[in-house]
Amino acid sequence: MDIHNKPIQDRIEWLINHASTHSEKYSKPGSWLARTRYLSEHPTSIAVLKCMDGRINIPIATNTPQGIIQPFRNLGGIFDLGWPHLGEVLASYVQNVVSDGRRVMTLITYHFSKGDPQRGCAGFNYDTEAARSHTYQIKRQVEEVFGDDHATVYPIVCGFETDDDALILHGSTGEQLNMADLKLSDKDTLLPRLEALFPDMSAQMRQDLLPLVAGNLDHVEEARQMQRELDIVHREWMICIGRGFDFLHTPNLALIIGPYSPNLADPIDKAAGIIQSNMEAGRIPDDGFLLLASVPFHDVGVDRARAEVKSKFLSNFAAERIRVSHPELAKKMKVKTAVLNWHSRHLEMLSVG
Hints:
Strand content: 15-25%
Order of helices and strands: HHEHEHEHEEEHHEEHEHHEE
Domain Carboxysome Shell Carbonic Anhydrase catalytic: 93-170
CATH topology of the largest domain: Beta-carbonic Anhydrase, Chain A
Protein name: Carboxysome shell carbonic anhydrase
CATH class of the largest domain: Alpha Beta
Pfam families: CsoSCA_cat
Strand order of the largest sheet: 2-1-3-4-5-6
Radius of gyration: 20 Å
Helix content: 40-55%
Largest sheet: 6 strands, mixed
Shape: globular
Number of helices: 10
């Protein structure tokens, strides 16, 4: 079913059902055991810093089970570890992983389209070189905070080409590995390629990176066999603000804004502009779009109550910003506020607007 062309109320109903189905599947014993087995075989924790662009879905692009990759999203993949909230969240994430005796691999991504520069990253005004340069700035910050020996936290600059959904790994040697340049018959050569690309990476980390690149090789081949004209352009009909949106494992549905930057107005303005362009170009119906705020919680009581207050703040802030920056678009805005139970991935709706 092509959900993009449905009336807005049908799309919202589909979303609620989709979130519920995801939680049910995520919470099943078999799914829990599968994740546990995967992490026992591949203990390195994987975080991805990426753009809010709905076309960038790393678990889908790497055929990785849901719940394995930890996403951090913001406009253009623009991050600064000096941002107070981002620094706290990332440091807490790393400390929790390391306390379990595991390492962290951080994919710092930029994206572009090989077919049309205007399908690239709007956050950098379609300047791929500027986007790539920024990822190296983030990499240097990660090394400054967590150590440049890469023994525990290993940052990798990673391009994402949205026409083929192909990863481009930038190695510590200055070499690159573009998955779009390989064939399925090259799969047996991936491990030695990773060894050459990241000679200072631990053997376990390389073994844990291998399923992602192998999965991406398979996915690129599948993507090339599909009709992807509408998938490779912006077609989002949702703006999501907050965290806990991994249930949106269908590409090109939502522009996801993490609550990390001290200036949330800019990504909200840009996201609203993309939604408006999607409507004007006829890529989605112009009868409405959804603004969804979500904040995860781990424990009932104070933690959940704080998540509810924070989600309401984000929802109100984003809605008011859209009313100011895009008043005509705001008339078509539907608002939902939610909290997410992190253990079950159950999305609990608080209000409807």
